[in-house]
Amino acid sequence: MVAVCERIAVIGAGSWGSVLANTLVLNGLKVRIWSRRQEQVDELNNLHTNRHYLADFEYDSRLQATTELKKVIEGATVILLVVPTKAIRMVSRQIAALLAPNDKKTVIAHASKGLELGTHKRISEIIAEEIPEDRRNGIVALSGPSHAEEVACHDLTLVTAASENQEAAKHIQKIFMNEYFRVYTNSDIIGVELGAAFKNIIALGAGALHGLGYGDDAKAALITRGLAEIARLGVALGAEPLTFIGLTGVGDLIVTCTSVHSRNWRAGDQLGRGEDLKKVVANMGMVIEGINTTKAAYELAQQEKIEMPITEAIYDVIYKGRKIKDAILELMKREGRSEEETKN
Ligand SMILES: NC(=O)C1=CN([C@@H]2O[C@H](COP(=O)(O)OP(=O)(O)OC[C@H]3O[C@@H](n4cnc5c(N)ncnc54)[C@H](O)[C@@H]3O)[C@@H](O)[C@H]2O)C=CC1
Ligand SMILES: O=C(CO)COP(=O)(O)O
Predict the structure, then answer these.
(1) Which atom of ligand 1 is nearest the CA belonging to 114?
(2) CATH code for the domain defined by 7-187
(3) Rounded to an integer, what distance in angstroms lies between the CA atom of residue 10 and that of residue 294?
(4) Domain spans of the chain, in order of start
(5) What is the pLDDT of residues 308-333, one digit of tens each?
(6) Res 5: pLDDT
(7) Angle at 234 between CA 230 and CA 238, to 5 degrees
(8) Which residues are part of a known binding site?
(9) What is the pTM of this model?
């Protein structure tokens, strides 16, 4: 049983952070959520809405929002980071300054999906660098096929809490589990975080295929061959191969490549319809993690000498202005291969 007096800090009040926070409130926990914007805090506290991120949803009135980071993390047993990947380092650094040395009682968890540009680091690696080990009790990644829009209305969702520290992972499992939100644990945090980051690249491609009018065969092929190359790079980077056929691998790949809720899929769809990338990003008004992750994965693949033809094609489209149809044609005209040879 979750201790009812337990206090949780959620850092980031976008669509995912706010819905995860609301889920914890409904599970009986005391939750404070941090946003850097006062008008968003006022809206959450007074109207119990967050319209820019989730239209037509009313949050539980017990959810308390504030712009004061110190107030949010004070007395929290869990600090859950749900900001875009590019903000993780800065936010972690601010949190570290507020945590006491030699006080290892706070579990640091995150539910973000991406890799840091430049360093190519996973999110738990960034957190580990910024929050000294003596100020935390484990780092957990909460990940899996889960859209805020569906969790908000209590649709069935299954995710994974991954950590090298299984006690910390079990703690996150315990506070989140309810009749519509089921949480597994996993010790392969490398595989879980890499699957989460890389699936967004393939989702951009799946959206583009849709925007261009291609059908289900093309979508199935992209998901399958996408999974093969994600796993290839993931294993080279230290992940367990089986993790990629779990919730945070193929599970998240399926949902992100097939759901209209996915911002990555929607961005790809608009690109496929001929929209300009800058306009797509500006109009989304929410993070499209796959854009930065495509660059990070492309560079990692070069560094590790791993063949990732789909990622390379998407990189060429996003970063070199290549026409999507030309990139697809080149993929299709690649020399014939054995599926057995390319699955490794
Ligand atoms: N929306 C969803 O259904 C899911 C999202 N995720 C992941 O969760 C992470 C956050 O996603 P969303 O909540 O959807 O994003 P969002 O775009 O809806 O919200 C992001 C939030 O972070 C804040 N933010 C942006 N830049 C910041 C910065 N530099 N410093 C501090 N705060 C900043 C924004 O003001 C906003 O409150 C992403 O990595 C995403 O991939 C994971 C699973 C599901
Ligand atoms: O990670 C997600 C679903 O599991 C959310 O995907 P998007 O960021 O593309 O909306």
Answers:
(1) 39
(2) 3.40.50.720
(3) 27
(4) 7-187, 191-342
(5) 999 999 999 999 999 999 999 999 99
(6) 75
(7) 170
(8) 12-17, 36-37, 53, 113, 144, 146, 148, 199, 252, 262-264, 287, 289
(9) 0.97
Sign of torsion over alpha carbons 238, 201, 249, 109: positive
In the structure encoding, which two tokens stand for residue 126, read together?
Answer: 């960034």
- pLDDT grade, residue 341 (50/70/90)? confident
Q: Which residues pair with 31 in a beta bridge?
A: 8
Show the ligand 1 pocket: residues with CB < 6 angstroms: 12-17, 35-37, 53, 82-85, 87, 91, 111-114, 146-148, 286-287, 289
Write the residue with the smallest CA distance to atom 18 of ligand 1: 14
Name residue 140's beta-bridge partners: 109
Ligand 2 centroid to Cα of residue 287, in Å, is 10
Contact indicator for 277, 288 with CB cutoff of 8 Å: no
How far apart (Å, rounded) are the C-alpha atoms in residues 243 and 188?
7
Nearest to 142 by CA among 179, 120, 173: 173
Element spanning 196, H or E: helix 189-212
Ligand 2 pocket check for 27: Cβ under 6 Å: no
95 conformational bin, left if phi > 0, alpha if psi -120 to 50, beta if neither:
alpha
- Topology adopted by domain 191-342: N-(1-d-carboxylethyl)-l-norvaline Dehydrogenase; domain 2 (1.10.1040)
